[in-house]
């Protein structure tokens, strides 16, 4: 059943306590960078023109660091070369377009820097998590998608992991079901019971769906603070349950 409001703070803790007692497996997703060559190039330029290392960026990632990078590199002629300008910036602007195109100019440049920094942090922290909990990983499933030329390209890596006290504590260290999001962690926390997905989430879209088994469970979840879109229990047909083999 679809959740209406964010699950955070005490409600998040209450839900996790119940989920830990009910479920035995979680999944977390790493999304692949579809523009990795572009972002790798940008990061290499940033590293070559600053005192930062990759570890510095990962360990000190914050709004302050992002702003510092914006201010330092927003007019860098190597990052924003002629190819970038021809693709993302308009040179012959009419007077009534200057403000709009000026904002597009800044947005495109900020986006290039932010995504390069974000994926650097995301990849490093995701890899650290996978290494730290490698003994908990049951299986890693890779999903591909087709590009415009019908070539298969990597899209996600989904880690299915056994719950233990260490992972439970990591999950409790977050403040919300939607905190499992790019760029500071793996994404989209899901819980599984006997191979079917009992709780499904897509953090960046703030979607959470809980497949309540019965009305008693639905009422209990409401009693701990979860607000559902439906104001009464609606059973999920068995054929709509998401099963995974691992």
Quick rundown:
By secondary structure, this protein is of the alpha+beta class. It has helices at residues 9-22, 36-48, 54-59, 63-73, 82-88, 98-132, 165-172, 215-223; strands at residues 25-31, 137-146, 152-162, 187-193, 196-202, 207-210.
Instruction: Point out poorly predicted stretches.
Output: 92-102
Radius of gyration: 22 Å
- How many strands appear in the DSSP assignment? 6
Average of per-residue pLDDT values: 90
Structural class: alpha+beta
Largest sheet: 6 strands, antiparallel
Order of helices and strands: HEHHHHHEEHEEEH
Determine the fraction of residues in helical runs and give it as a percent range: 40-55%
Number of distinct helices: 8
Strand order of the largest sheet: 2-3-1-4-5-6
From the N-terminal CA to the C-terminal CA, the straight-line distance is 24 Å
Q: How would you sum up the global shape?
A: elongated
Number of domains: 2
Instruction: Tell me the fraction of residues in β-strands, as a range.
Output: 15-25%
């Amino acid at each position: 059943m679809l959740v209406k409001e964010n699950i955070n703070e005490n409600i998040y803790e209450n839900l996790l306590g119940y989920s830990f007692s009910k479920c035995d497996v979680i999944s977390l997703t790493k999304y692949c960078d579809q523009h990795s060559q572009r972002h790798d190039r940008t990061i290499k330029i940033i590293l070559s023109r600053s005192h930062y290392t990759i570890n510095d960026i990962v360990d000190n990632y914050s709004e302050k660091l992002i702003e510092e990078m914006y201010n330092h590199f927003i007019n860098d002629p190597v990052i924003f070369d002629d190819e970038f300008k021809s693709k993302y910036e308009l040179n012959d602007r009419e007077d009534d377009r200057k403000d709009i195109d000026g904002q597009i100019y800044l947005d495109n440049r900020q986006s290039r820097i932010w995504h390069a920094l974000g994926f650097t942090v995301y990849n490093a922290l995701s890899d650290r998590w996978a290494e730290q909990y490698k003994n908990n990983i049951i299986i890693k499933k890779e999903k591909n998608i087709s590009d415009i030329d019908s070539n298969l390209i990597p899209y996600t890596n989904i880690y299915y992991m056994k719950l233990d006290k260490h992972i439970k504590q990591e999950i409790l260290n977050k403040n919300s079901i939607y905190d499992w999001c790019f760029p500071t962690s793996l994404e989209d926390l899901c819980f599984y019971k006997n191979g079917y997905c009992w709780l499904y989430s897509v953090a960046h879209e703030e979607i959470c769906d809980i497949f309540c088994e019965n009305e008693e469970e639905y009422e209990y979840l409401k009693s701990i603070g979860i607000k559902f879109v439906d104001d009464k229990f609606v059973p999920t047909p068995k054929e709509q349950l998401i099963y995974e083999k691992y």
